[in-house]
Amino acid sequence: MDKMNGTLLVGSARPGGLGGVYRLAPGGDGWEHLGGGLPDKLQVNCIVQRPGTPTEVFAGTHSGLFHSTDGGDSWSEMGLAGEYTAIYSILLHPADPDTIYAGMDGTVIHKTEDGGATWRKLPTVQPAGAITGCFPVRVLRIVADPNNPDEIYAALEVGGAIRSLDGGATWEDISHGLLDLSTQPHLRNHILSDDDTEGMMDVHAVAVSAEHPGKVWAANRMGLFVSTDKGGTWVEVGIGRFSDLTYGRDLMVSPHDPTVFLAALSDSSRGVAGSLYRSANTGATWDRIDHDVSIDSTLMTVSVDPANPNRVVCAARLGQVFGTEDGGATWQACPLPDGVEDVRAVISV
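The structure assignment produced for this chain is given below.
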């Protein structure tokens, strides 16, 4: 197994004991399954790092929201283990360290403004076009417009997208344009229901760049889409012009350059192929950068080290973790232990 120069943290949602948080240190002997206050048989859906504080990380799990200030050595639960315990997304306010949003099942988002001492459930709305017959609609991603952190967007698995323009006080459905696009033959798709709008409503990630205030990007089952009016209308990016794989699972803007985007693309939700694409011109064109890597399952997540723009790490559903220290010119394989699958998160700290 190769080693990255930075420490990696990975989250696995595999039930039965193999899930949890795993850490790979540059000088270590291999992956370490972390405890230190984390429950046994933990299923992890997301991990985020506090910008500017490499040792402070948060993990969203099926058992609540956990916080570590020492890089994962010890953890404390932040008061959300209760009625809604499965946390799929975390947004840390970019200017106020005490303000945190946590996205859950059932289109539920909780917010704290005092570092987790108290939480309140926000008055979100579930889009009328949400597919509700398979599982509770999950909030898979929450992002804020870097130009106005009170403008917040949320991606809903099989539920479309919603926004708040006032810090979560009120919410609106911004899925109407996605539903309109689902009338096009190549964007009709259903797996879990009999509704051909399902594919367009299966949104996995949203992103906003400081380069273009109010311009929102979305990755869903059918590809990549963009809105120039805060989600009022949507158009297809046409990622199929650049990639044979178009199932969009993750999408992010580099923390170092607002014109650089990264997209994790695959063949399906439980597929046998994945690919990593980068745009250096705010989504106008895309190039594949996972050279000499054979990704054998759905590419679930991509992350850029906040201290090093050339350090990029990725993880696929069945436990394949790999990274680059030189912006994609070469890659190192860091496979997880056998049996650690359903990987949902990876970061470099």
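Interim note for the steering committee: The radius of gyration is 18 Å. DSSP finds two helices and 28 strands in the chain.
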